[in-house]
Amino acid sequence: MRTNFVIRLLLFSIFLVPLSKIEAQNYDLLIKGGHVIDAKNNIDRPMDVAILDGKIAKVATNIAANTAKKVVDAKGLIVAPGFLDIHSHNFHGTEPGAYLSNSFSALPPDGFTFRSGVTTIVDAGGAGWRNFKMFKEQVIDRSKTRVLAFLNIVGSGMRGGAVEQNLTDMDAKLTAMVAKQNPKTVVGVKLAHYSGFDWTPTERTVEAGTLASIPVMIDFGGSDPELPLKTLFLDKLRPGDIFTHAYANVKGRTPIVDANGKVRDFVFEAQKRGIIFDVGHGGGSFVFDQAMPAMQQGLKPNSISTDLHTGSMNAGMKDLANIMSKFLAMGMPINEVVDAVTNKPAIIIQRPDLGNLSVGAVADVTLIKVRKGDFGFVDVRGKKINGPERVECELTLREGKVVWDMNGISKEKWKAN
């Protein structure tokens, strides 16, 4: 008799609890009233995004506020997947004279990612097969940011000078072996800074990418005489391979826009063929003389990236949000700009689990404001253009947790006692 009484009492208590209190346990966080841009799922309209246990739980037009423990008011903001920056330099360390491989010119990821909406960053060649283990232990495993890597074809990594000219240290098989041993973190192979008139480094890089079934990123140039850019695009690289510093004009490399301001015909052919054009702004690799006519003639970047290091962070580059703003100023629509830092780079590095807000996906989310005004944007030669909009990161979530909140929109308001 007593057991039946207890069961009846429990049932009665449950039905006395308001439904709203039961539902309030459904989601950990609700982003409400924002404009969602998610290219993978063809969303470009006002939607709410609910998060539970670090993953996207629901995306819908009107999710009740009382179904979440915490609500973020995103009215007037764009809600996007966490940004991917696929060209950065983060193998920071203290070894003198080692350039971007365990030395002072590279930067710790967490100090430069979340504040501009980046949740995934890809180190572009800092480590080679010889020192990747150190990079993983020192940076990848110690960062809140998701850190991935293009493995340098040079076994010793991006140490500058003579080290990067060493053909005997460009081993395709060993590079591919280390890449295959680290499939969760190595997403490609990088060639950079080789200055000889020789296709061997390019060919070994592509060979390593082929053996490991991953794309390659080519920082092309420095040869005297110049190696033919057309040959690189149409004969050496595979569809899906990446040409970075796309809007640069540097010694030893044919610029994509000729002296008459016209994009070379084979450049359009290359992009149509599937060659990826990556911004890789950096401290010396983005000029309006190339970018402006290219954009006007329809050569848009497949991916927008920073080439972040100590030589670029305080100059014309600044951060990813600033580069996004430049492309807005050059006429690229905001939905395409967001796509070039979310879904597109995720596809390029073969990580379809990233760069989208699909239900079940990791809750890496970025909220940005597109501020109106009169803003100036500078290239690496000190030339300036003005634009009426600037991208500013308001809130960044990494696996559903707030890691950047510019104006405290996820926090409770202080009240005097």
What does this structure look like?
- The structure is a single chain.
- With 417 residues, the protein is α/β, with parallel strands linked by helices.
- The chain has a domain at 82-348: Alpha-Beta Barrel (TIM Barrel).
- The protein is 24% helix and 27% strand.
- The protein is built from 11 helices and 15 strands.
- The strands form 2 sheets. Strands 1, 2, 3, 4, 5, 13, 14 and 15 form an 8-stranded mixed sheet that branches. The chain has a 7-stranded parallel sheet with strand order 6-7-8-9-10-11-12.
- A hairpin with a 5-residue loop joins β13 and β14 (384-398).
- The protein is globular, with a radius of gyration of 24 Å.
- Mean pLDDT is 95; it is low at 9-24.
Labels describing this entry:
24% helix; 11 helices; alpha/beta; TIM Barrel; 27% strand; 8-stranded mixed sheet; 7-stranded parallel sheet; 417 residues
List the helices and strands and how they pair.
Blueprint lengths: L1 H15 L2 H5 L3 E12 L4 E10 L2 E6 L7 E6 L4 E4 L1 E6 L29 E11 L3 H7 L7 E7 L19 H10 L4 E7 L7 H13 L3 E4 L9 H8 L5 E2 L21 H9 L2 E2 L10 H9 L23 H10 L4 H6 L3 H6 L16 E14 L5 E15 L2 E5 L12
Parallel strand pairs: 1-4, 1-5, 6-7, 7-8, 8-9, 9-10, 10-11, 11-12
Antiparallel strand pairs: 1-2, 2-3, 5-13, 13-14, 14-15
Would you summarize the structure shown here?
By secondary structure, the chain is α/β, with parallel strands linked by helices. The chain has helices at 2-16, 19-23, 132-138, 172-181, 200-212, 229-236, 265-273, 288-296, 320-329, 334-339, 343-348, and strands spanning 27-38, 43-52, 55-60, 68-73, 78-81, 83-88, 118-128, 146-152, 186-192, 216-219, 242-243, 276-277, 365-378, 384-398, 401-405.
